[in-house]
Design brief:
The chain is an all-alpha fold and 565 residues long.
Length: 565
């Protein structure tokens, strides 16, 4: 079993509930909730652990009522926003959820409650991962949470954050994340904490499933998960069935895999949205491998409907790629190309979405900061005039400096985004040309030559995107034509008419797009010479020249810009 089938499974099964206290409380009605601050706070976090988001929100609302409108600095206000924000990350997070988390972060910093701050940062990581499909931002928040964890003695939460980090690493196909899962397991076992132990073991199982040589270790991890599920109720039947199906498929036990997928779908009512999507994807992949492409297409179309209705988009790109492959194997080349283009357009759109989210989140942070300043000003009014003037002057200086830093930060960030958007403009134009030609194919009348060109372009695009043929530095139009069972003249014509590019130009654009992805992985920090070779450039000078021609900046300049964000 290769890495691609499992590249994104861990999100759906391991980075969901990150609670801190054991799940040992009975279900309670809102009317029976505790009345004291301490009891309400702990009850709310226990409900998060149990997955009872409605009662967790009720606890958050009660905490706010308990503090009263004049008690903005009461710890109950902090944990009210924290509970409401964390519950929101598990159930359709939106800007309201972000506001709660940002308010909690601001209050935690003022009250020096570093445990709450750690919890809020972990929640931000989940928010970025689940709802923004932004692995790198999520990792940034998770590592910030670890830094705050050095100030508090909460090994349980520390292990949970480590587990989330390992899941995010798997999301980007980086197997070095296994060490974070193993470290979380070690801490959880030493502290006898079943919650982080379960999630870290889940991650370890997923890493092992992705490598054929580690299938025995995967089986051991899955057995441990089943025992914890029976003992504590952790996870869902769909999660475990999905893992067992992956194990059967890795062993070549097709019948067993089909049976586990069936059980996973029977338990969809209790499964998370991301788990449901992954069941559809992996089930369809098994069908396609079993030469049942038509059935795989029906399953994936159900999965696409589920993604659109749930709003959890993290697996959409993976599903579109699998759907394109299924259409191609079913002989529906037009739909295969259309699906491939939809995948490319979805990936490109993420650049603009990142910019929009950054702007919106900056505004939210500023509004919350301004509100906090107004509260401080009201408190200062009770002091003497000289003291009041001094405090107000200090606050104004802080505000001016903060605004200047925010302005400088986002001005620098926008310059980089502009370069990225400029680099992708021609990709979008080329994709629109291909879509227009697909539309022409649907019109009545003789179109056999166009159909042949379109089919050739679809197969060429598949080789570029799925098999990454562009990484071959010796690739020529002649060798590519041979792989496609055509001649170089006909291939050049298909590329030119569909994209307006030459063969070399188009191949180099695929190489530059992959290079941008590799350079953006700041944690890996690969040498530029290595990246150039891996994406298919035979010389570093050619790589530099092509990269600057496409993006408007050198690879070194691009990396330094990213590190400065």
């Amino acid at each position: 079993m290769g890495i691609l089938p499992l590249l994104k499974i861990c999100l759906g099964v391991c980075v969901w509930i990150w609670a801190l206290w054991p799940a040992s409380v009975r279900a309670e009605e809102p009317s029976a909730l505790p009345s004291s601050y301490e009891d309400l706070r702990e009850a709310g976090i226990r409900f998060l652990n149990q997955g009872d988001l409605a009662l967790a929100r009720h606890c958050g609302e009660r905490l706010l009522q308990l503090a009263g409108p004049e008690e903005e600095r009461h710890p109950a206000v902090l944990y009210s926003h924290l509970l409401l924000g964390l519950a929101g990350t598990e159930s359709g997070a939106d800007s309201v959820c972000y506001v709660h988390l940002e308010t909690a972060r601001a209050l935690a910093g003022r009250q020096r409650d570093y445990e709450a701050l750690m919890m809020a940062l972990n929640g931000f990581g989940n928010y970025a991962l689940f709802h923004n499909n932004d692995v790198y931002t999520a990792l940034s928040y998770y590592f910030q949470a670890l830094e705050e964890g050095k100030r508090v003695d909460n090994r349980r939460l520390y292990a949970m954050v480590l587990s989330n980090i390992s899941g995010a690493y798997f999301m980007r196909g980086d197997f070095s994340g296994l060490r974070y899962a193993d470290e979380a397991i070690r801490i959880a076992q030493a502290e006898d904490e079943p919650v982080p132990l379960f999630h870290a073991t889940m991650n370890r199982a997923i890493f092992c499933l992705a490598a054929d040589s580690l299938l025995p270790q995967a089986a051991v991890a899955i057995d441990a998960l089943e025992q914890m599920h029976d003992a504590y109720g952790f996870g869902t039947e769909s999660d475990l069935s999905l893992l067992r199906a992956q194990l059967h498929a890795g062993r070549g036990e097709t019948a067993g895999a089909y049976g586990e997928f069936a059980r996973a779908m029977e338990n969809f009512p209790t499964a998370s949205a991301s788990t449901i999507t992954m069941v559809y994807i992996e089930y369809a992949r098994l069908l396609r491998t079993d030469h049942r492409a038509a059935s795989a297409i029906r399953v994936l179309e159900h999965g696409l409907e589920h993604i659109d209705s749930s709003g959890v988009l993290i697996h959409k790109a993976r599903l579109l790629k699998e759907l394109a492959l299924s259409y191609r194997e079913a002989g529906q080349t037009g739909k295969a190309l259309e699906c491939t283009l939809a995948y490319m357009e979805y990936q490109d759109r993420l650049f603009d979405e990142v910019r929009e989210r950054a702007t919106q989140e900056a505004r939210i942070r500023h509004d919350i900061f301004a509100r906090e300043q107004r509260i401080s000003e009201q408190q200062v009014e009770i002091l003497g005039n000289r003291y009041k003037i001094a405090v107000l002057t200090g606050l104004m200086l802080v505000l001016v400096v903060a605004l200047a830093l925010i302005y400088g930060f986002y001005r620098k960030k926008n310059r980089l985004y502009q370069a990225i958007v400029s680099q992708n403009r021609e990709y979008l134009q080329r994709e629109q040309l291909l879509l227009n030609q697909i539309e022409q194919m649907r019109k009545p009348g003789p179109s056999a030559p166009a159909d042949k060109l379109q089919d050739l372009m679809a197969r060429f695009t598949t080789l570029m995107m799925e098999e990454r043929a562009f990484t071959d530095s010796t690739l020529t139009v002649a060798s590519m034509a041979e792989r496609l069972d055509t001649n170089r003249t006909y291939l050049s014509k298909a590329i030119n008419e569909n994209t307006g590019k030459t063969f070399t130009q188009l191949v180099n654009e695929y190489r530059i797009r992959q290079a941008i992805s590799e350079i953006s992985d700041l944690a890996a920090d690969k040498p530029l010479k290595q990246i150039a070779a891996e994406v298919g450039f035979s010389s570093l000078s050619t790589f530099y020249a092509t990269f600057q021609a496409v993006t408007g900046m050198t690879p070194a300049r691009y990396r330094s810009q990213l590190k400065g964000l």
